[in-house]
Amino acid sequence: MKNKRLVILGAGESGVGTAILGKQKGYEVFVSDFGKIKEAYKEVLRDNGLDWEEGGHTETKILDADVVMKSPGIPDTAAIVDQLRAKGVQVISEIEFASKYTNATIVGITGSNGKTTTASLTYALLKDGLNVGLGGNIGKSFAELVSEGNYKNYVLELSSFQLDGIETFAPHIAVLTNLSPDHLDRYEYDYKKYIASKFRITMNQTEDDYFIYDGDDPDIKNWLDSHEIKAKKLPFSLQREVQEGACIKDNNILLTIDNTQHTMPIAQLGLQGQHNTKNAMAATTVATLLKIRKATIRECLESFQGVEHRLEKVLKINNVMYINDSKATNVNATFYALDSMETPTVWIVGGVDKGNDYTQLLPLVNEKVKAIICLGVDNEKIKQSFGNIVDLMVETAGMEEAVKVAYKIAERNDTVLLSPACASFDLFENYEDRGRQFKNAIRNL
């Protein structure tokens, strides 16, 4: 009997990880990337003796697939995906493919913002007591981790694109950090479709599973009011007391699960700010469900310093603090960043607009921002939204120029904040590249 044919579209982290796992599981594997494949990934493909192509798709080699793994960056509307679906070929995400080959306990974390911080913090809370791997949309792909076969537990950061391609995937614990409009260019500019995509994380859960979510988020509440889910619901809230889940009482995080209460003082959290309190509540709920010792949770929450490119303090020069928030790829993330500024701010913003609505930022910009530096190929919308609010707005063509302009504008006790509210693909490879270029430019001042 001939081996099943696995075709992989896209040779990034998820594609190459799936190729390794597919070969290990006896599939005949073919990898096809419409663009250029990075040299590091080519090496992995060669070392594993895998068949691949770049710079276009050879239809005959793709359409005879038994199953296709589509990388999250490729939209469902791509011509080759339409052709596969018309032929009745199963098209899934790497998360779906890899989940078939592990019996581990899976914690899946999604949301418009905070998912990387929450996933990193959850992993930090679990790793002393459990055998656990961290992956998905952060670090290594889930498929590669599964191929290594070392873990009994996984913490996975999951994007809506990864969830779009699942059919049976069911995390034992699902976390939805929050909802705000993002990636609407991939959802026909329909926010409801994006919300439905995020809630796919719970669609295959059973009564024995848990769904942890922001109980203050109106979009989450509305969806739960009109849809049934089977998993046990555990909200976290800063605004009200909850019977089950996490809330704030007397400056403590109060967590109630199965009538047992646990407390943790907020003042001792390593990460400050309301959104980080929520991230801590979500992560603590997961750790408690997985029986991590209270003392371990407390120590870890106190020492955790956050993730790179998320409100990361870079340097202080002439009493001006430079902060890298390159991970803010949507308006809501930038809202948190501006909200946490305590000194006059020079704000570097811009990139690929995904259908952004900047109105929610207007009061914060009015209150905190003294100058705006546009960093993007097309800055029209930013100029229209904030032109009347700030006295100074400068357009720049790249990161080095943006940082030099910020250096000239900023005065003692100001903050220079890179928080783009946009995707990075016009001038940079990704948000990490953007953040690193920002840090390098500051060090070269």
Automatic annotation (TrEMBL):
**Location, primary (coarse class):** cytoplasm
Which pathway, metabolic or otherwise, does it act in?
Answer: Cell wall biogenesis; peptidoglycan biosynthesis
Record NCBIfam families: murD
Q: Which residues bind ATP?
A: 111-117
Q: Which residues form the Mur ligase C-terminal domain?
A: 309-422
The protein's matches in HAMAP family, at most eight in alphabetical order, are given as:
MurD
- Please state what class of enzyme this protein is: ligase
This protein's name: UDP-N-acetylmuramoylalanine--D-glutamate ligase
One GO cellular component, as annotated:
cytoplasm
All residue ranges annotated as the Mur ligase central domain in the record: 109-287
Provide the GO MF annotations for this entry. ATP binding; UDP-N-acetylmuramoylalanine-D-glutamate ligase activity
InterPro entries per record: Mur-like_cat_sf, Mur_ligase_C, Mur_ligase_C_dom_sf, Mur_ligase_cen, MurD
Q: Which UniProt keywords apply?
A: ATP-binding, Cell cycle, Cell division, Cell shape, Cell wall biogenesis/degradation, Cytoplasm, Ligase, Nucleotide-binding, Peptidoglycan synthesis
Catalytic activity, as annotated: UDP-N-acetyl-alpha-D-muramoyl-L-alanine + D-glutamate + ATP = UDP-N-acetyl-alpha-D-muramoyl-L-alanyl-D-glutamate + ADP + phosphate + H(+)
Q: What does this protein do?
A: Cell wall formation. Catalyzes the addition of glutamate to the nucleotide precursor UDP-N-acetylmuramoyl-L-alanine (UMA).
Assigned EC number: 6.3.2.9
Give the family this protein belongs to, as stated in its UniProt record: Belongs to the MurCDEF family.
